[in-house]
Q: What sequence folds into this?
């Protein structure tokens, strides 16, 4: 069941996702399209952590095609076709993926960084920059220099950021997000929860988000 927590906002959207998930970036764009169309007054979006592969170790020398073939137990040709489909979906929402060039990276540090950004009121912009760095710029988001570059760009204190990156700070927050996901029965991401009541699983078409948003808005008005 969904959390009972409510906020001061008219609409609260919680999104479980992984920085390494190509469909999470697509789902983010489709949600944004629906929000832009309907323009609800006060919306709070909270990005929750989820690790698609908790055992993943960063390997900048390994092709993501090799990694996926090994991890999923399928052929590289099947991976290539799967990635081509994801790239086509990304193109439909204005994203330019080159998945073959993405870095095989552990996303735990990036998730801890996102929790820090949330406390600093910068989570939205950091989430976008992390996804853009991984999928658009093919950078290693497990690398301190890459994360410090993002911190500098969004106005986060570099000294404090480095302290966090070199520690395990905010790891409990990441673990709690994952615990919440398991309590909700989330098996994959992205997973969206609207006002602790309605859930959407996957990077659904923008129309699906629009219908859910309309339902939530009508209930809030009533």
A:
């Amino acid at each position: 069941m969904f959390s009972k927590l409510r906020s001061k906002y008219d609409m609260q959207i919680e999104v479980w996702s992984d920085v390494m998930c190509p469909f999470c970036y697509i789902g983010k764009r489709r949600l944004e399209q629906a929000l832009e169309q309907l323009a609800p007054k006060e919306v709070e979006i909270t990005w929750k952590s989820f690790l698609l592969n908790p055992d993943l170790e960063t390997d900048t020398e390994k092709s993501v095609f090799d990694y996926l073939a090994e991890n999923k137990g399928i052929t590289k040709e099947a991976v290539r076709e799967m990635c081509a489909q994801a790239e086509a979906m990304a193109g439909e929402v204005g994203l330019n993926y080159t998945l073959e060039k993405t870095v095989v990276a552990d996303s735990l540090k990036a998730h801890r960084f996102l929790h820090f950004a949330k406390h600093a009121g910068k989570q939205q912009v950091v989430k976008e920059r992390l996804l853009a760095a991984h999928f658009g710029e093919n950078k290693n988001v497990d690398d301190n220099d890459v994360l410090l570059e993002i911190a500098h760009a969004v106005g986060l204190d570099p000294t404090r950021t480095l302290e966090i990156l070199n520690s395990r700070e905010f790891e409990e927050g990441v673990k709690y997000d994952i615990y919440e996901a398991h309590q909700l029965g989330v098996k994959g991401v992205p997973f969206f929860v609207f006002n602790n009541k309605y859930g959407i699983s996957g990077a659904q078409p923008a129309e699906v988000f629009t219908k859910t948003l309309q339902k939530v808005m009508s209930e809030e008005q009533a």
Remarks:
- The longest strand covers residues 11-17.
- Strands lie at 11-17, 43-49, 191-194, 198-201.
- The two ends are 23 Å apart (CA to CA).
